[in-house]
Amino acid sequence: MKRLGVLLSGRGSNFGAIAAAIREGRLPGAEIAVVLSNRAGAGGLEAAREMGLPAFAVPSTGLTRAEHDAAMIASLREHSVDLVCLAGYMRIITAEFVAAFPDRILNVHPSLLPAFPGLDAQGQALEYGARVAGCTVHFVDEAVDHGVIVLQKTVPVQDDDTDETLSARILEQEHLAYPEAISRVLSGEYGVQGRRYVRLTH
Question: Which residues carry out catalysis?
Answer without folding.
Answer: 109
